[in-house]
Each structure stands twice: as structure tokens, then as C-alpha cells.
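Q: Structure for this?
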Amino acid sequence: MNEPVLARLQQLMNLREEVETLGSARPWTPAADWIDGDSHLILLLDVPGVNLDTLALSEEDDTVTVQGERPALDETLGRVLSAERSSGKFTRTLVFPEAVLPQSGEARLSAGVLTIQFEKRHPTIDATAQELGEETES
Amino acid sequence: MNEPVLARLQQLMNLREEVETLGSARPWTPAADWIDGDSHLILLLDVPGVNLDTLALSEEDDTVTVQGERPALDETLGRVLSAERSSGKFTRTLVFPEAVLPQSGEARLSAGVLTIQFEKRHPTIDATAQELGEETES
């Protein structure tokens, strides 16, 4: 299966989890992207309205867990008429798509998007650049 | 039905829309909350990673439409391994839960959350405060 289909399946799995928890507290599963940047892996997570000081990152073997919390709707603003936006704590555990150096994660939060960059244990060598280099030598 | 159940049903309707569009471009429907603040209505929308200059607000009769766009993943960052986060344009049309004054919407964007405040046509009178006032007068 190609990547878009896999991503869709992951979405459906998340949807199923959400439907199964319909009777309990509203589920809160931030969407995530993984990017391979040759020397590093980049994890992007949508966490709108989450304060930086609630965010925590932990690594164990081949997984990374991101935890955080979005405050509940401020009741001083008024009476809630309808609420689709999730609030409260979230925990998301993801498997690293490639081995990374332990504790190499560097996080930043901007416009509600959390970006975490990890150093890859085995950086991808840019074959094109190497070939060009060999050509120059000969 | 109480409000949490209604919110759940709205979620399920959104999920159904998402499942139905599984073959096409990834759906992108920002979650929304409505709050009644006595003299105004507040609309909150989760739009992480959306730039302010792509956002547009339009009102027609009893509905408000919010449009915006999130840029696709920056390919200069690297190769996309998996992508759950939606990108591209979104359009969300919502019915005002109460009549508002035309063109009274004031928007601000913070931490990926868009907050739009509208002036209510018929502000809610705070009965408690009035009663207290009458007591003081007597």
C-alpha cells in the first residue's frame, strides 16, 4: 500500500478509537507527521491552544511519547453553546520510523504546531552529491 | 438531547464526511466551539499552522463562513514518511446560534486558535445583577 493509503488507515484507526470513547471524556489525539531530513527525523504535531509549559517529551527504546494539556474552555468567557474542540490532557506515543540518537530531540512550538527534530543514528548519505564528487575527482 | 450528545453527533457527522472523502484530497475541517458571552458570541476554531493572511471571514444571513489555507509540508525539510495532518484550503460554514449585528466580527489568531467575537443583536440581560440592583434600591 502506498503512503497516502496508510495514512488514511491510521486516520480510520484514530476515528474508531474516537467513536469507541463516545461515552467518556472527549478524545484528544493530536495529528502527527514524520519527515526524513537525511541527517535527522522531524515530528510535527498539531497542538493548537496548548501551552508550552504543559508539554513533556519522553523516549523509550524505539518510541517517543509526547504529553500535554489544553485548558478547558474558560467559563468566564460565557456559556458554552457547542464544543467540538477537545480539551484536557493528551498522550501520544509514536514509533520512530528510523533509529535516532537518544535524547537528541529538540522541540519548538509555533502557531499551534509542535516541531521536534531528532538526530538519526544512521544519516542518509546523499548518493547524488557523492557521485558528483567522484566525477569531479576523476 | 443534551449539549455533549449533540456535540458528539456533530463529531460523528464530520467523521462520516471524512470517511466518505477517503479517496480524494485529505479533508480539512477545523473543529469549532461557540460561546455565549451575554453581549456577544464567541467562535473558536482550531487552525494550527494557518497563516493569518490566508484567513477570510464572510457573513450571509444567519451563517458565517471562515476560509483559510495551511501550506503543504515543506519539501525542503525532507521526505514525508507519514502524514496525518491536513493541509491545503479549508472552508467552514457555521450557523450563528443567535442573531448578531452584521459585520461585527472581530478576529484574532493565537497559538493556532482563531477567536472571532460577534456582537449579539439581543444582548442577554443578567437577571441576577438586576435583582441585586433592585434590592440595593429598596
